[in-house]
Write a structure and sequence with these properties.
Layout lengths: L6 H22 L4 H9 L9 H13 L1 H8 L12 H16 L5 H15 L4 H16 L5
Length: 145
């Protein structure tokens, strides 16, 4: 795929990464969404990210975190509050995309989430994220199979 570089895809991927980092930060030190968005607006990578998409993901993940955790619960072996904060942040952002962005293929959502979990999470965290999101996608995106 090296010859198929798409700047919009890269900007979205960067927006996802920053959104996961923002949700990680929010879990460790909760702050109002606007404060978090302002903090991340100053990130050195933000000019290359899809800022609108970043803001939408973070806003929805914060506003709906309890509902997203409840939606993820059937696919988790433990309570969301007991999850590793990196894995939880990745799952929240991916859940927003799976549930509210049907135009994004579930395989793209899962691949991006697994990549972020591999990059920032614990050693086998990406395997856990992959398993949870695969089961969630089967349940939530039945028309995509």
């Amino acid at each position: 795929m090296a010859g198929n570089f798409n700047p919009q895809t890269a900007a979205r991927a960067l927006a996802r990464r920053l959104a996961v980092q923002a949700m990680y930060r929010w879990q460790l030190n909760a702050a109002p969404c606007e404060e978090l968005l302002l903090e991340f607006a100053a990130d050195a990578d933000m000019p290359r990210a899809d800022g609108t998409y970043f803001r939408a993901l973070v806003q929805q993940a914060i506003d709906e975190h309890a509902a997203l955790d409840a939606a993820l619960a059937p696919f988790l072996a433990r309570a969301a509050a007991e999850l590793d904060p990196v894995e939880h942040a990745v799952l929240l952002i991916a859940a927003v995309e799976l549930l509210h962005r049907p135009q994004i293929p579930f395989r793209v959502v899962i691949d991006e989430a697994v990549g972020l979990a591999r990059r920032f999470g614990a050693t086998d965290g990406h395997k856990f994220v992959n398993g949870v999101l695969d089961r969630a996608a089967r349940a939530w995106r039945t028309n995509e199979r």
